[in-house]
């Protein structure tokens, strides 16, 4: 049985000794830390925090990525607000570079109309321009940007996420450099996209894949529930693809709200891999 690249999602920029012990005990080789605050007085602007993360994770041979602060909208139509969002992303990229992070997982943003509105291409172009400027601002850095596919919201919500369909990802990736921009494929979000099957989406972006976010839902809401024993049987080809990628070193980041849920999903996938 080949070694699996297990990833662990955690909130905040600190890792306690207890969490580190769990990571090592359960065979995790990657951790993704979600940035929870961006105030100048916080950890994001403390070089000691970045240095401690780099040294600690290197000592334990654990890879690092960051998850961008929620609420950033790189497709915001108001220039001043968009520039502020870009500054917040730049701060996270620079912290990640100092901490030795391989990438920053990014949600491109949202817009106040339904997913099929003609205005969406303009907002995608704003986000594309913002990403290009961020790459220029951080030229020379090793850290990449990992664009995450988001879930399709119902038409009646009159709100859409940028990057909620495969065609949008193909459009974005065709214009962005492979060495600094990849894809963090979210399995749970893909299950909330009626446009195409999750496996089709995954196979289409596999050549730019940095990692996977693995969780499940009821097909209606983005719940981040743990995988059940029935999930692999209900999704055999997708499970096979996920395990194949994990065996090749692509981190399977188990993204849940509680540590026990992370371990539950890991056990389910381990059993499917046996």
Per DSSP, the total helix count is 10
List how many beta strands DSSP finds. 10
- Biggest β-sheet strands, sense, barrel: 8 strands, parallel, barrel
CATH class membership: Alpha Beta
What is the assigned CATH homologous superfamily?
Divalent-metal-dependent TIM barrel enzymes
Integer count of domains: 1
Class derived from helix and strand content: alpha/beta
**Whole-number radius of gyration?**
18 Å
Which second-level CATH architecture applies? Alpha-Beta Barrel
CATH topology: TIM Barrel
Work out the oligomeric state of the chains in this entry: single chain
Summed over residues and divided by their number, the pLDDT gives a mean of 96
Classify the helix fraction into a percent range: 40-55%
Distance between the termini: 7 Å
Q: What are the low-pLDDT stretches, counting only 5+ consecutive residues below 50?
A: none
At a glance:
It is built from ten helices and ten strands. By secondary structure, the chain is α/β, with parallel strands linked by helices. The strands form two sheets. An eight-stranded parallel beta barrel has the order 1-2-3-4-6-8-9-10, surrounded by five helices. Strands 5-7 form a two-stranded antiparallel ribbon.
Please describe the topology of this protein:
Blueprint: E1 6-11, H1 17-25, E2 28-34, H2 47-59, E3 63-67, H3 79-99, E4 103-106, E5 110-111, H4 120-137, E6 144-148, E7 160-161, H5 166-173, E8 181-186, H6 187-190, H7 198-205, E9 209-214, H8 231-234, H9 236-247, E10 252-254, H10 259-273
Helix pairs in contact: 2-3, 3-4
């Amino acid at each position: 049985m080949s070694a699996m690249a297990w990833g662990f999602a955690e909130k905040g920029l600190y890792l306690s000794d207890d969490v580190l012990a769990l990571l090592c005990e359960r065979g995790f080789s990657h951790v993704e830390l979600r940035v929870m605050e961006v105030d100048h007085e916080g950890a994001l602007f403390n070089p000691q925090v970045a240095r401690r993360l780099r040294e600690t994770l290197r000592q334990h041979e654990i890879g690092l990525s960051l998850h961008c602060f929620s609420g950033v909208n790189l497709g915001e139509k108001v220039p001043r607000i968009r520039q502020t969002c870009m500054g917040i992303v730049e701060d996270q990229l620079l912290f990640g570079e100092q901490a030795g992070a391989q990438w920053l997982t990014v949600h491109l943003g949202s817009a106040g109309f339904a997913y099929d509105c003609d205005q969406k291409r303009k907002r995608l172009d704003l986000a594309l321009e913002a990403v290009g400027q961020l790459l220029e601002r951080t030229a020379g850095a090793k850290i990449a940007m990992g664009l995450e596919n988001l879930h399709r919201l119902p038409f009646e919500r009159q709100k859409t996420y940028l990057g909620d369909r495969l065609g949008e990802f193909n459009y974005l990736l065709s214009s962005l450099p492979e060495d600094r921009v990849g894809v963090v494929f979210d399995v749970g979000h893909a299950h909330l996209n009626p446009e195409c099957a999750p496996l089709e989406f995954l196979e289409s972006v596999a050549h730019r894949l940095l990692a996977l976010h693995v969780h499940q839902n009821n097909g209606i809401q983005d719940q981040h529930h743990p995988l059940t024993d029935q999930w692999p049987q209900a999704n055999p080809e997708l499970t096979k693809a996920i395990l194949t990628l994990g065996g090749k070193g692509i981190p399977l980041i188990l993204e849940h709200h509680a540590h026990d849920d992370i371990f539950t999903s890991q056990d389910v996938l381990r059993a499917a891999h046996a």
